[in-house]
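User: Hi! I'm a student and our assignment asks us to look at how structure tokens line up with a sequence. Could you show me two examples?

Assistant: Happy to help. In each example below, the sequence comes first and the structure tokens follow. Example one:
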Amino acid sequence: MKQSVKELKVTAGEIRKDIVKMVHASASGHPGGSLSAADILSALYFNVMNIDPENVKMEERDKFVLSKGHAAPVLYSSLARRGYFSTDELLTLRKIGSFLQGHPDMKGTPGVEMSTGSLGQGFSSSIGMALSAKLDNSPSRTFVLLGDGELNEGIVWEAAMSAAHYKLDNLTAVLDYNGLQIDGPNDKVMGVSPVDRKFESFGWNVIKIDGHNFEEILKAFDSAKSTKGIPTIIIAKTIKGKGVSFMENNAGWHGKAPSDEELEIALKELGGDK
């Protein structure tokens, strides 16, 4: 299943509408960093990855790890729209008894490869998955999405060093580089720049893109697949809260639910509630 760029734009739009509706229904959650990653996950789940919702544990499937686990709404919407479970489940986000909890749960949610939430640990787990595939001579590729605030965690750099050491060219990391974290701009909380030179110095292939441009996104994934001998990180410049004017570039929407009125405005800006 490979969607065209035109189709991917539609899919990303539907995912963004799901995100604001889910967080509104639960009265809690993380809309800002979910909205910024919608285009990236749309490309992965509907064009790039070798997966089969009808055979969730397919032996040689590609694997995705949401290392910034608080952005679970974007993952849940992507999985539901790809066919892993009904989209009717999305509005049960964070409800008691729901398998869609505040952070991804590999034991309860179909299609989730790793339980994440403690920042940096998902990245480390993805290195283990990629190394395992290498040892098994499997064609399986591993993809992992990190947040830029997540780079404050020391475990990220230990993992980066390990991935380069083991020459994990079957690993592609994507950095959702929206410039903000829960307490404000990254450079004021804990500077992480220059990210590209840091990863290059750790032995990674670095690709810089506009994280909302599907042509650039797909080209970057193709380039990562053809790169041999070293892992790749795609630094995707994004907008936190992308698509909703009052959420865009606003750290206050890192972890806050919209009101009824705000939901109505958001859905209208995203193309209507369909």
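Example two works the same way, sequence first and then tokens:
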Amino acid sequence: MNMKPLAVVTGGAGFIGSHAVDLLVERGFRVHVVDNMTGGRVANLAQHAANPDVTVAERDIRSLEPGDSLFDGARFVFHFAGIGDIVPSIERPAEYMSVNVQGTVAVLEAARAAGVRKLVYAASSSCYGLAVTPTREDHPIDPQYPYALSKYMGEQACFHWHRVYGLPVNTIRIFNAYGTRSRTSGAYGAVFGVFLRQKLAGKPLTVVGDGTQRRDFLYVTDVAAAFYAAADTARTGETWNVGAGNPQPVNRLVDLIGGETVHIPKRPGEPDCTFADIGKITTELDWRPVVSFEEGVGRVLANIDYWREAPLWEPSSIATATRTWFEMLDRGQP
């Protein structure tokens, strides 16, 4: 009989989830990965392919039910599964609510039936909207688009299950995670993937606005460590911001990646700065980031071939892809 503790990682073949699997294996856990492989890659778990302690179930989280055998005996559940990106959420809001809210409810019910010791939910800093910085956890909530709303509603479901059913949950509001294995397919989205594919193709990097906007970039292994800390604590019913607490201008990223640039219009609903106040998590969980921005970008560049098959975005295709963004979100601007 395997006496190692069990953790369930939804979205465990994805970007952050696969790094969480790595960390859990290092900490002596067996891991059940639940992933429908829409955004994840089997290759992200390649190093565990022969490991009998890692089991991958290709499942949609909405198919999970109380009593699901994947959760039997689980100590921790890390819930990363969901769909992201702004534009598709504007175009297909019902799908985002289905996956990110109802899917989360299915995970909560499976975890509740299994009597897990802790569930940690991957929430999003996008819930704060155009926030005052540095942004604390008690900042007013103001989602600007359906993705942000769906992730916040999933987070609220977690706290409701904690209050009503006593399910031990904590949530992590992730700011700008980056690193190896970030998504390479799908809609126009995160700046790292866009820039890396452009660099591989020898194309100019498409800088939004003047590039002085700052983002609180945090390397993915630091994110995974924060999730483990949020599980391995007696605290419950808590939410913590996770960022570097040291926002970097997009122009600094451009300098580190290198190459020519071209500027494209700034988009409505995007903040000039994201900046996590991480005082709560550093105090309560003794967590702090350890990978510098320069070191993290260096790690990504050393693995740049990962993005070779990603979509190549250029100003014209970005304009087409973001047309709905401008049309819908401009309505809400003063």
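Here is something you could point out in your write-up. The domain at 180-215+246-273+291-332 is CATH 3.90.25.10 (UDP-galactose 4-epimerase; domain 1).
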